[in-house]
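Work Package 3 (structural annotation) set out to generate three-dimensional models for the target panel prioritized at the project kickoff. During this period the team completed the workflow that converts sequence records into discrete structure tokens, so that structures can be stored uniformly alongside our sequence database. As a representative example, we reproduce one entry of 272 residues exactly as it appears in the project archive.
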Amino acid sequence: MREESVKGSKIGGAIAAGLLSLIVGLRSCTRVPAGYVAVIDKLGHVYEKELEPGIHMKNPLSSAIDMSVRTQERKETMTVPTNQGMMATIDVAVQYHLIPTEADKFYKRFGVEEESQEIAIVSPLRNVARDVVASHSPEDLYNFNRGKISSEIEEQLRGIYKGNGIELERVLLRGVSLPKEVTAAIDRKIKAKQEAEQMEFTLMREEKESERKRIEAKGIADAQKIIAESLTPEYLQWRYITTLEALTNSDNTTFVITPYDQKMVPMLPLKK
């Protein structure tokens, strides 16, 4: 009976040892999925070396915290003042990813809770967007300068995110809403500007056309002056005679009556 008890104790001990070994083995092995890195936390001590995707062995007393390094997007709708004190509602989005080699620092500073995204991503975005929009007019938000505003937000935000272990990819200013009366005033201003530009273009075109006509008229006048200077009485007489000669020698000519003065004799060709 005693032998059976001892034998049972040995079996129980072997089973317990086997279970303990299994648990230790499972705790010593971790798998990091694609698009993630793992931060090793050993009883409050965070290792600087992150684990890349794959199967890894670790200390069984350590925890492996998976952290995504994939591109993520965060959208925010906020009401901010312009430089004229008018309130504008903007829809802005940021695309970013965690820098893999900075995952340990991000974990130690912000953790992995939802609040960490709020502190590291959203709060800087709100502050920078508010400061940038406050330096621009409502017209800048309404027209093509919107891209410039996005670039300014991105430039200022990039350094802040970098310090938080985040790589900023893009800032997208997707929507802007202004009070109706402000929008109407901007539309009128844009229309007036377009009309002024159209008028300026028309005046410039007319001025160029007038210049072209002046140059053309001057060219014609110069040509006429040259021709007039070359039309001497002797030349005209010679030209008159050669023309009459050509007419008299033509087969189609039967009778020619020409004016004449004291210096010219009429030519009256008769042909049978």
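Residues 180-230 form the longest helix (51 residues).
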